[in-house]
Specification:
Shape of chain B: elongated
Distance between the termini of chain A: 49 Å
Order of helices and strands of chain A: HHH
Largest sheet of chain A: none
Number of strands of chain B: 0
Oligomer: heterodimer
Radius of gyration of chain A: 26 Å
Number of strands of chain A: 0
Helix content of chain A: over 70%
Number of helices of chain A: 3
Strand content of chain A: under 5%
Largest interface: A-B, 40 and 43 residues
Strand content of chain B: under 5%
Distance between the termini of chain B: 49 Å
Radius of gyration of chain B: 21 Å
Chain lengths: 78, 247
């Protein structure tokens, strides 16, 4: 087992290579997943605001043109 | 196929179905490739255990170049047909490509020190790879520096397309100039010159990196589509609030 970690005296070169790769690739993965989660959460929050605005009838004061676009909004889905 | 996928809703549906699979397959390939690269494959008769650096160095190099090819192709598609999804793909590819290019350079230095006696030499292969890394950084900096999104996309596309000249230079640098770097030993006209005991783990690691890049890019593109939708809602909400305040 210790022979495996020693890498025939090249441990100082082999292991940092894999550590850097893990760090770089792992960082990319976490960053990407976090961006997806953040975007989904923000969209859900805005959609909830939109629905509550529709429920309270706040939008009905708008012109018929706005109503058309607002119905289009309900089609936007995560 | 392009016009089929150019519809964001259709792309979204397809991406949602494909993304979990790409993450799963990438994890599986790494679970096979890593122990094969680190334990099962034999040490090289000349390079001893340092040859294990190859299993991360070479896939990183290939994927840095493949990601750039993807960046240039999507930039071209965006430039000619103005398909927004192509621009999203370009934006998603750049940071991943930059990381792979950096990993190629860093692991190359860690391999060069014990085998060549130098962390770095200014020869054509290493320098052109450094140029690739700088192209990625330049592309991202350029896009970040321009406020107008359409203008940023077009300027980035031009830079990405111009930079494609660097790819054949990287590939053939080892044939055109004297270098410490070894010549191509996998993609050759007369077939690979690597022993199967090393070629197998190398191929699996390369495949793992490829599928992982696909997962990263598709997930990132979806994240960008979601935030674009959120931007639309946000603008609409601001307009509505202004309207209400005015009434």
């Amino acid at each position: 087992m210790s022979a495996f970690f020693a890498m025939d005296g090249y441990a100082a070169f082999v292991w940092p290579s894999y550590a850097l790769t893990l760090l770089g690739v792992g960082g990319l993965v976490l960053w990407t997943l976090q961006a997806r989660r953040a975007a989904a959460a923000r969209l859900a929050r805005l959609q909830a605001l939109e629905t509550s605005a529709l429920d309270t009838g706040a939008l009905e004061t708008g012109s018929s043109e706005t109503t058309v676009t607002e119905t289009g909004a309900t089609e936007i889905d995560a | 196929m392009w016009s089929y996928l150019a519809n964001p809703e259709r792309f979204d549906r397809l991406a949602r179905a494909v993304i979990p699979w790409t993450w799963g397959v990438a994890a599986l390939l790494f679970a096979i490739g890593l122990p094969w690269a680190l334990v099962i494959s034999p040490p090289d008769y000349q390079q001893s255990e340092t040859v294990r650096i190859m299993y991360v160095h070479v896939p990183a190099a290939w994927l840095a170049m493949a990601a750039y090819t993807g960046l240039a192709v999507s930039s071209f598609v965006y430039f000619i047909w103005s398909h927004n999804l192509a621009d999203l793909a370009a934006r998603a590819l750049a940071p991943a490509g930059a990381v792979f290019a950096f990993l190629c350079l860093a692991t190359g230095a860690l391999w060069g020190r014990p085998m060549w006696g130098a962390w770095w030499v200014w020869d054509a292969r290493l320098t052109s790879m450094l140029v690739l890394f700088l192209l990625y950084l330049g592309y991202m900096a350029l896009r970040a520096a321009i406020e107008d999104e359409k203008l940023a996309a077009r300027a980035g596309a031009i830079l990405a397309m111009a930079g494609v000249l660097n790819l054949p230079i990287i590939k053939f640098s080892v044939d055109w100039w004297n270098t410490l770097h070894q010549p191509a030993s996998v993609f050759r006209f007369d077939g690979p010159t690597i022993h199967p005991s090393a070629l197998w783990p190398l191929s699996i690691m390369a495949l793992a990196f490829t599928v992982l890049l696909t997962a990263l890019v598709l997930t990132r593109m979806r994240a960008m589509i979601l935030s674009r939708k959120a931007d639309v809602l946000e603008r609409r909400r601001e307009r509505r609030l202004e309207l209400e305040a005015g009434l």
